[in-house]
Amino acid sequence: MPNMLGDDIEESTNTTSRLLIRHVLLPGGSERDERTFYDVLCLDGKVQSIRPTEGNQYVDEAEFSQSGGTLLQTDGLLLPGLCHAHIHLDKCFLLREYPDLQISTGDFKEALSVTDIAKSRFSQDELTVLRRGHELIRRSVECGVTSMRAHVEVDKTVNNTCVDVGLRLREQFKDQCDVQIAVFAQDPLFQPGSDQAGENYRLLAQAATLQGVQAIGSAPYVEPDIACAKRNINLVLDLASKYHLFADFHLDYNFDPSLEPLIWYLLEELTTRINNGSWSSKSRVCVGHATRLALFTPNDWNRYKRTVEEASLPITLVGLPQSDLYMMGRGTNPAPRTTLNVTRLTKEHNIQIAMSVNNVQNAFTPQGSVDPLSLCPLGAAVFQSATRTDCDILLKSVTTTARQAIGIISASETADLIPRVGDPADFVLLHDNTSTHLAALNPSYDRTTIKDGRIVSIRKTEYLDEDMYRNTQSR
Ligand SMILES: [Zn+2]
């Protein structure tokens, strides 16, 4: 038996990090059988080799560990690290932080107003913003998140408080998670009756130049009218291109057939800018929510697909189901429960959609956890999609498609769930799942997170008998 794995290790004795994940299941598909166990060797943050586990005879585990390597023995399923394509770092856990600011009507207007009151306290209490953001990232890493786009608001109410906190947390967690900071205008850039962008725009434009900021976003639907909403889009695209940032819009967040879908305007603007050379080739665009598009006919979707493909538009739609389902369709009977149908759009139109958590414990999204994998069983129910194919699509929407959406990997790179030699060694290991199908339907609680070939978090259920429990209490 040749010492194949040993040779892989031998070739790289000068490496700084070495992790051998032993006896692990990989996603199935045409190339691999999910019932076969594999050994995945990671060197210097990259996948060095993937080989079927063939017993212990061809690697000396003691020697590997003694020479500084980390050995992870498991029976679980290895998936690409999870990715928050869209999460708000500064307004998480507000329902817990401010008990006086609770939900009464539950509608969007109320969510905006109570969040505004909370935001008015941020500048005086920067430490709580930091503590909440820290908890969001730490809990995300425990779930298996290795990359995220974190929105932080910039406006007259909070000034630079949130972006400053975001940049500090980005640095603090740099070994555990790629935290991409997106400066975000939740508030209008224009005042009613004025055609000049105001103070909120000036602050946003200034924040876009800060070292470490990688994306810029806005919510054009808060503008006083549709003309201002379109100008909001133009201003954000201008800044994104000027400073080589990713652009990220909260767009078409309604379920009203009488409202013009602004996605067409955005596609038109993007096409024009690409054609006349006024768009940075590094800038991708994300569109979050887009619930209005759930009213699209097959012809509308064909038009969308054709427009994006003909001009090679760097754009991805990001469904935010926990928020969309909670907020959309209020006051109608029967109430539609609406969010982008990830599985149907992939299968019928070959349009890849990411899904993301958006908010945790605030008036926009009071329910749900920080775990991106929790969106998969939700999607299986809402889209009535639980086949093996559907489940792979759902898993991609919170891993590889999400990474492509925020530019962590390029759109031309493989979006496969199966790791390949040379890939970044960013994984989540699901200890209690034996297939991608089951991982999407009922994700394992016990998880190990691997970032750049290093174990950065282990989340495990502890089983205690009565004596052990007493001992833990008396410590
Ligand atoms: Zn959002």
Descriptive account of the structure:
The chain has two domains: 4-75 and 419-459, Urease, subunit C, domain 1 (Roll); 82-405, TIM Barrel, CATH 3.20.20. The chain contains 17 helices and 16 strands. It has helices at residues 4-10, 61-66, 94-97, 108-122, 126-143, 161-172, 199-207, 226-242, 263-275, 298-310, 321-327, 342-349, 375-382, 388-397, 400-405, 436-441, 466-474, and strands at 18-25, 37-43, 46-52, 70-73, 77-80, 82-88, 145-153, 178-185, 213-218, 246-251, 285-289, 315-319, 353-355, 427-430, 447-451, 454-459. Helix 10 links the parallel strand 11 and strand 12 (315-319). Helix 5 crosses helix 6 (161-172) and helix 8 runs parallel beside helix 9 (263-275). The protein is globular, with a radius of gyration of 23 Å. The site of zinc ion has 6 residues, from strand 6. One of its GO terms (molecular function) is hydrolase activity, acting on carbon-nitrogen (but not peptide) bonds, in cyclic amidines. InterPro entries: Metal_Hydrolase, Metallo-hydrolase_Enzymes. This is Metallo-dependent hydrolase.
